[in-house]
Write a structure and sequence with these properties.
globular, alpha/beta, Nucleotidyltransferase, domain 5, about 15% strand, about 40% helix
Length: about 200
């Protein structure tokens, strides 16, 4: 896909009269540990960022390069998170929606329209309140959402790497909190840490 194709959704929003359009995505809905992160990004119109794509399709090295480029070149960007304790108190969908809306709220200059990755815009305890449209597989279809997916993913990975120093016995630097065989082995050995999501540990 040519990078220019990633601007179709933004162009549609501009054509509807929205001047500042952000993309929003989250990372870390599935892991057994750590926060869920979200990012919102407003890019300069039609900006070409070489290699911009869904963060899951990029190497860690490529994500790191794009992470810096996006933050340098964005009109505005913001990252927000909801921690494991709050995920346990509410639920993961509520936490995801809250994190995304928090990121949108922090944009300066603010966006007047948001393209949201996925097909959900509300949970039991939180919803996207900004004017928005949900986009399934948005991180491969929209430049702004792809940029947000990279900021969210890299921010979360770096947090988990910091937690690996604090809780070295869990090997967070290897699995970033996801439910790998190694992670389950460490959980059985050491029990949960303060950053584990207790509600995700049903099958220990």
């Amino acid at each position: 896909m040519e990078p220019t194709d990633l601007w179709t959704l933004e162009r549609e929003a501009w054509a509807e009269g929205h001047a500042i359009v952000c993309g929003c995505d989250e990372a870390g809905a599935g892991p057994l540990a750590g926060p869920v992160y979200a990012a919102a990004v407003v890019l300069p119109r039609e900006l070409e960022l070489p290699g911009l794509n869904d963060s899951k399709k990029l190497s860690a090295k490529k994500r790191d390069v794009l992470f810096d480029l996006i933050r340098e070149q964005a009109v505005s960007w913001a990252v927000a998170s909801v921690d494991a304790a709050e995920i346990d108190e509410t639920d993961i969908l509520t936490a995801r929606m809250k994190a995304m809306q928090l990121a949108i709220d922090q944009l300066d200059p603010p966006a007047d329209f948001a393209l949201i990755d996925g097909n959900r815009d509300k949970g039991k305890g939180a919803a996207i309140t900004a004017p928005h449209r949900t986009v399934v597989k948005g991180d491969s279809l929209s430049a702004s959402i792809a940029a947000a997916s990279i900021l969210a993913k890299v921010s979360r990975d770096r947090f988990m790497e910091a937690m690996a120093v604090q809780y070295p016995q869990y090997a967070f630097e290897k699995h970033k909190g996801y439910g790998t065989a190694l992670h389950y082995e460490k959980l059985r050995q050491y029990g949960p840490s303060p950053i584990h999501r207790r509600t995700f540990l049903k099958n220990l």
